[in-house]
């Protein structure tokens, strides 16, 4: 009788707390089947880059089966030597890791029966018509097959003028397509911009507010925001500024209030390693975290499987796939099922369903500085830590 009562108690307790699904909690690497020494290798790569002055700041979090086995940070928040040190809770500008989060917002509405992935974009954005635009489906926006450009031809002009996001939307609705929709792959931030616009028009909410209400708050991603979320730029880790016209950098560079708070759906999200780990773990849990279903199992599986079988660039819905080495920076040792995304500011987040492993690496040195090599080296060291 006592055994039966205990079983029922554990069953009820598990259902109330999400016990049946992995929750993110600190643990010894051995308990997660990972090598402590190999994880030290991953951390040491970042620590060495910071110590030798090649990388200003970095943070890394690794978890397996819900067990957090590495959570460290290096460097300082600002460019000046006396600024506060970076901690595991420090907020970074994610850049293009924002894209799959925008896709997650779309999928919330798909689950709610308010959006169909195969609806034409013009059904939601009637201004988007003519010259082949009627053939673009929402699915195309999320898998980068819409024919839209990555950036508008007048991109720099708009940024110099501090144009609002609405002006980027207006121009994107009429910009010429580069190829027939669905006929090929072309990485397109402007397609993600229109996906965000569809969320706004369908929900009646600003995308930043929709993300907060429908994704960040339910998952406890309390440090995450599209835009600054009420912070000052100085409250976040500064970004290394790209080469180019210093006047442009001062006007609309990655550390300006204009760019940080625009809330652009393709690259304007701020977050921490811990918050991104919550989202990745939810994906690994088939859409459930802490007993709450945020996404349907069907939605998660659609997001992380190849949606581009007819192209040479496999991609999910928002998420990049390890099968696409040109775009993925997850290293060469993860399983083919791995999904995630990289950000131009020097960030990467990935999850490997086969090994139940997730990894978030946030830095503030542009990926273009080394072609993503640092992120691949660290990711390989993490993948090599899986022992059983």
> What proportion of the residues form beta strands (DSSP E)?
5-15%
Ends: how far apart? 37 Å
Major pleated sheet: 7 strands, mixed
Number of H- or I-type helical stretches: 13
Largest sheet strand order: 1-3-2-12-11-10-9
Q: Structural class of the secondary elements?
A: alpha+beta
Key attributes of the depicted protein:
388 residues; alpha+beta; 7-stranded mixed beta sheet; 3-stranded antiparallel beta sheet; 12 strands; globular; disordered N terminus
Explain what you see.
The protein has helices at 2-17, 36-51, 98-111, 138-143, 155-160, 165-172, 189-203, 207-219, 246-252, 257-261, 273-284, 297-303, 373-383; strands spanning 25-26, 57-64, 67-75, 92-93, 225-226, 269-271, 288-289, 292-293, 320-321, 339-343, 347-352, 357-363. It has 388 residues and is of the alpha+beta class. The strands form three sheets. The protein has a seven-stranded mixed sheet with strand order 1-3-2-12-11-10-9, sandwiched between helices. A three-stranded antiparallel sheet has the order 4-6-5. It is globular and about 60 Å long. The chain starts with a helix and ends in a 5-residue tail after the last helix. The model is unreliable at 1-19 (pLDDT under 50).
């Amino acid at each position: 009788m006592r055994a039966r009562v205990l079983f029922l108690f554990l069953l009820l307790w598990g259902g109330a707390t999400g016990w049946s699904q992995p929750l993110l909690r600190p643990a010894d690497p051995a308990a997660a089947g990972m090598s402590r020494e190999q994880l030290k290798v991953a951390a040491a790569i970042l620590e060495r880059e910071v110590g030798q002055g090649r990388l200003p700041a970095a943070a890394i979090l690794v978890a397996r089966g819900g067990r957090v086995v590495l959570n460290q940070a290096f460097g300082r928040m600002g460019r000046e030597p006396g600024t506060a040190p970076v901690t595991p809770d420090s907020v970074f500008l994610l850049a293009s890791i924002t894209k799959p989060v925008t896709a997650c917002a779309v999928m919330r509405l798909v689950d709610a029966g308010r959006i169909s992935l195969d609806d034409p974009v013009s059904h939601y954005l009637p201004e988007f018509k003519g010259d082949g635009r009627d053939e673009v489906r929402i699915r195309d926006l999320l898998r980068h097959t819409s024919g839209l450009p990555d950036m508008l031809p007048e991109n720099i002009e708009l940024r110099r003028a501090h144009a609002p996001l609405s002006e980027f939307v207006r121009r994107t609705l009429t910009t010429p397509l580069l190829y027939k929709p669905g006929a090929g792959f072309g990485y397109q931030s402007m397609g993600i911009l229109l996906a965000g616009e569809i969320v706004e028009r369908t929900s009646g909410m600003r995308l930043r507010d929709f993300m907060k209400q429908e994704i960040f708050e339910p998952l406890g991603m309390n440090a995450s925001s599209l835009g600054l979320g009420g912070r000052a730029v100085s409250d976040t880790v500064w970004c290394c500024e790209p080469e180019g016209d210093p006047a442009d950098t001062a006007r609309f560079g990655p550390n300006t209030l204009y760019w940080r708070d625009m809330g652009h759906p393709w690259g304007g999200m701020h977050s921490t390693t811990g918050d991104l780990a919550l989202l990745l773990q939810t994906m690994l849990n088939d859409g459930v975290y802490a007993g709450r279903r945020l996404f349907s199992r069907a939605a998660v599986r659609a997001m992380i499987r190849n949606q581009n079988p007819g192209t040479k660039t496999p991609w999910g819905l928002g998420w990049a796939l390890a099968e696409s080495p040109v775009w993925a920076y997850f290293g060469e040792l993860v399983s083919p099922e791995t999904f995630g995304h990289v950000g131009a500011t020097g960030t990467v987040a990935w999850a490997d369903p086969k090994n139940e492993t997730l990894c978030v690496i946030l830095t503030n040195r542009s990926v273009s500085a080394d072609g993503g090599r640092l992120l691949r080296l660290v990711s390989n060291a993490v993948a090599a830590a899986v022992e059983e």
